[in-house]
Amino acid sequence: MAKTRPGKRDLDTYTIKGTNKIVRAGDCVLMKPSENDKAPYVAHVEKIEADNRNNVKVRVRWYYRPEESIGGRRQFHGVKELFLSDHFDVQSANTIEGKCIVHSFKNYTKLENVGPEDYYCRFEYKAATGAFIPDRVAVYCKCEMPYNPDDLMVQCEECKDWYHPACMDMTIDQAKVLEHFTCSECASDYPKKPLSSSPMSNGKMLPKRQKR
Ligand SMILES: [Zn+2]
Ligand SMILES: [Zn+2]
């Protein structure tokens, strides 16, 4: 039999081995990590193709977990936080273990229940330089930290800023039963501090007060 010419065929779908889950371009998937004890890699599927021997390959754009970024995990990074990187790759479709959903930050904070397959992304990440887009992010509380959706915050009825209970000398349980909250600044007679803020420790992300 004559050999077929080497060539690639684009595929619309790929069914994950041992499941009936169908992956299409545009989906987010979990992929087998290089070491078994590591968390699965998360990728955005750009394209699915088969070679002439029917090996299925996926062209992916990697999501990075905070601990995989140059700056490392920081206090305001949530456990389900991912960065959309500029790092593309071609992988065997066999390494796909499951599907997941990467929500926008806003949609993620509105989820009533966060399942194991739910993640969120609020930053793009340049893998070579460690830079983030956007490089500025709104900060809250007197500690001037970006919002970590894993942490409970309470809103001041006066200034409408959000505060960590611990930064206001409260426990989480006290904060949960609060009916009204006024932050310590609004509760005092001192003039309000200006709405500017100082750069954060590594200078990568400059905080910005957001009026809401
Ligand atoms: Zn705080
Ligand atoms: Zn206040």
Automatic annotation (TrEMBL):
Q: Could you tell me which InterPro entries the record lists for this protein?
A: BAH_dom (IPR001025), BAH_sf (IPR043151), Zinc_finger_PHD-type_CS (IPR019786), Znf_FYVE_PHD (IPR011011), Znf_PHD (IPR001965), Znf_PHD-finger (IPR019787), Znf_RING/FYVE/PHD (IPR013083)
Protein name according to UniProt:
Chromatin remodeling protein EBS-like
Q: Kindly state which keywords UniProt assigns to this record, in alphabetical order.
A: Metal-binding, Nucleus, Transcription, Transcription regulation, Zinc, Zinc-finger
This protein's record includes keyword Transcription regulation:
yes
* Leader peptide range in chain numbering: none
Q: Which PROSITE patterns match?
A: BAH, ZF_PHD_1, ZF_PHD_2
The keyword Signal belongs to this UniProt entry's keyword annotation: no
- Chain ranges of the PHD-type domain: 138-189
| Matching PANTHER family | OS08G0421900 PROTEIN
GO CC annotations, alphabetized: nucleus
Give the principal location in a single coarse category: nucleus
Q: A Gene Ontology molecular-function term?
A: zinc ion binding
Q: Where in the cell is it found?
A: Nucleus
Give all residue intervals belonging to the BAH domain. Answer: 21-136
Positions of the UniProt region annotated as Disordered: 193-212
- Superkingdom: Eukaryota
Q: Which family does it belong to?
A: Belongs to the SHL1/EBS protein family.
